[in-house]
Model the fold of this input.
Amino acid sequence: MFRKTSGSILCPSCGRLTNADARACLICGRRNPGLWGFAGPLQMLFRRHSFVDVVTVACIALYILTLLLDPAAAMRGGNPFNLFAPSPRALIDAGAAGALPWQAGRWWTVLTAIYLHGGPLHILFNVMWIRQLGPAVEELYGPSRLVVIFTVAGVVGFIASNMVGYGLTIGASGSIFGLLGAMVAFGHKRGGAFGAMVLRQYGQWAVLLFIMGFLMAGVNNVAHAGGFVGGFGAGLVLALAERRGETGLDRLLAVACIGLTVLGFGLAFWTAFVG
Done:
């Protein structure tokens, strides 16, 4: 992908032809439609790659990596539910969140912990929900906004649990509740029969999953609640796909979320093995 700073491009807002170096789109008036040469590459990035697939691969790869960081501990499970569970040390090295890492200044853990999991059942159920909810959010909001919602929800969830003093905490469930929150926000904003149906269906799922969290041991319900609030808030702020196509700003925000997450993992492994 190469920056295009001259010639004709498609405006990220209205999709009509305009000049890459124009100060404003001649059709819709959008300022800097060429996004300083990055409009084309950003559009290609989000057309070709599914964020849901990227998250799935990242979660599985990082789960395997945390097992390999301490394989002896992963095989010492006292019961079948603890078998193939990464050790706390391995999870901390990979970027687990919690009050102690937060107090130590490891701000990146609220991003990296989203992609870490504590066992086969943990990652299985989370990936299943991501693959169930992610495409629905992508269809109603757009692929770039899905990235923003997923990331913001996970971050808000972990910040909330850090503030109330949760210890070591990991998993994508805060982001999953954020996807549910975004769907509820869609139903609220959309209105009508379709909006009411979406609101009812996904609202019921959120309530059911939240209740189930209180019936299971070791569940970070504060992160679930924070994730739902984060996703709901992002859903209210971001535009619906049917009302406005994704803009360059949406794509830049998504790239920023991905970039910060990659940076977070770089800092996590640097701190664990180099720093």
Residues 8-42 form one domain.
